[in-house]
Give the backbone structure.
Amino acid sequence: MRLFILILSILCSVCSVSHPIAAYIATQKWNPKDLHLQRQKLPQTPIPGIYKNASRPWEKGAGSFTERRFQALQAAVTDKGGSWTDKEAKTIHVSKLTEGLTTPDTPATTLTVSLSEPVYLKDDNQAIFYMTVFQGYERHLFTGIVIMEKRNGKWELLEKVKSSAIVN
């Protein structure tokens, strides 16, 4: 029985990091107890525009832009919308689902994250998601896209691209 529990716990930990958002959150120095997720998913539609506006064609890597890559990104946007489920929240390691970003009662140590579903590119080797992060009630930390790449079976952060838009 102990062996079964050990194997199950190892499988669960491997599965949870197989999600690009969970892998990104694992790279941050955030306290999981203070990490909340807005239940309503952000749209994927801003992702191509932020990607295109921030791309630098003279560089190679995550931010390099080609029209073909941009079209593939636009085609991959599905914008299913909807809400994050409790199961998904556990998979990406957040402690609580919230109905909004922040309220005046939100403790200063709380990070509230709002996320889109990832858009997968290049046979699922890259994932890009839209994200907003607030600390406490009004401290905006980040709005933009996060580009992850799967290397040797693990999701790794390639680039964060800020957007000037703030999503509420």
Strands lie at 35-38, 96-98, 111-115, 119-121, 126-135, 139-151, 154-162.
